[in-house]
Every structure is written in structure tokens, then in C-alpha cells.
Input
Amino acid sequence: MLAAYYETSGSSEVLRVGEIDVPEPGAGEVRVRIAVSGVNPTDWKAVRRGRGLTNGFLIPNQDGAGVIEAVGEGVDLARVGQRVWVLFAAWQRRWGTAAQYSVVPSDHAAALPDNAPYELGASLGIPALTAWHCLCADGPIEGKTVLVAGGAGAVGHAAIELARYEGARVIATVSSAEKARLAEEAGASAVVNYRDADANQQIKALAPEGIDRFVEVSLARNLELDLESAAPHAVISAYADDGGAQANVPILRMAFANAVLRFVLIYTVTPEQLRTAIDGVNAAVTAGALTTLPLHRFPLERIREAHDAVEASAVGKVLVDLD
Output
């Protein structure tokens, strides 16, 4: 099969494209013929760090979509031919989605609803599952007010659409007019440019009773601002460390508000939590509630450019086409 792979850590320059033997699914696994591979920040960072590289090669990219072609022992044969979206393909494994075939545990190939194109399937995985867990891990959000920081990013886009689907009112923060348009198109009822000097005053005016849920991309930079606009019993879910790796947490202030500070790494949630998130995302996909950001598409031969685009914070979703 044709695959992108790397044998040493570094920039996108270490990525190669060549022929590799087609992997066979083991017990409890499925082999998926990949149609589209999604690229996330975690993918280029994994290449930089080379985590898991010992002897041999690794194929990058966690997310993708395609068709199950073969199953291993213990997997229902009826799954052969099923359209699926793939998650965690390269998490502590060799067979990422930047290849014609990937082998993953059966429960990491989720049935893709018939109404969903492969482009959407390849855009789910890390972004949509992270967004769903940030929003819903602490209970239903119907009737609540949600603030999505970075509303034009992949997680932010999914969070806006999922929050609307779950019955919440959404305020998003962005850094430009172009990104504001994307957040509005996703369904945010109000959008604030976080670079405005009075951004927090705008948020408090939009939500005078406070924000119930925060989907936070930059806790170190925004925690103080979040607490200023938080409702009692608010939940702040931080899924990234943009803007700083450490935050100063005002313990008594959060205690008096009975606020929850949740840290989210979707790879390490419990199996039960992951299953719930997959089901929640699929319900939204089936209902037609999720869409893609503007797409930047690359053939596999241009995998380096795809990774560079994500590293450069391209506005939209970067995909690699395998078919």
C-alpha cells in the first residue's frame, strides 16, 4: 500500500511517501481502506516529538474515514463493507490514517451515518469528541449558556455546533472578522473578538447571568477572564495549552463559586466516556447538525504541505485524500 511514514523525529521534512506492506487486523481489530485522512495539531506535534519511535516506522494522523475491508478474530463479519470514521489510529500504534489502509481496534472505527460524507467523517475524531466531552461530561447543557474560546478552530467549530444541537446558547470568541464569520455560520448567537480591550465587558453584557460552560483553548491566558463571567457552578473545560503551559488558579475564588476546572485529553478518558462521546457525536451527525470547516485538501504525496498548513494555523480543516 502507499503510505506516508517517518523513521525519525523532526519537522515535516522527515515524512516520506512510499510502498509498505498492507497490515493485517489482529484479534478485535478491523482494517479500513482510508478514503480521507484528517490532520490535527497533535499530528505534526507527534512527528516533531517522535513519541513511540523505536525501531521501524510510524504512519501519522489520528483521524480518517473509509470502509472496513477486513476484520480480525472476534469481530462481526457483518462489519465488512461498513462506512466508518476512524479515531486514535496513531495513538500508541503504528498504523495512522495517512495511508491507503489502517488497522485499528474495532471500537475505534465508528459507523459513519449514511448522510455524512467522508470529508465530515475525517473531521470528527479528536475535534468533535473533545468538544463533546468538554460540553457534556458534567451533565446536560440544554438551556445553558456556553462560551467557546477559539470558535473558528476545529474543536471550537464542533463545540459550537454540538452545543446548539444539545440546546445551549453559544457565545464564541475569535481573533478576526473572517473567523467571526465562521463562528456565526456554525451557529454562535454572539461572537466577540478577544483582542478587543473590552472583550470581557462584552461577554458579561451578552450573558448577565453568567456562563455555565466554557470550552477553553487557552486557560493560562483566559482563566481570570472566564471567572469574571462565570455563573455559579460553572464548568471550565481546558483541552489545550495555547498561550501558556501553566495557569494561576485562585482556589478560594473557585471554591466560593463551586466552579469545576476540568482538563480534557480525549485519548485518556475512560472507555465508557469515550463510548458516550462517540454516541453523542454520531447522534448529531445523523441529525445533520455537524458540518466541516472550509477544506484544504492535499494528495498523499503532499503530506508535508498538509502538516505544515496545520502547523501554520490554517483557517479551516486540512485533509489528505487517499482515493
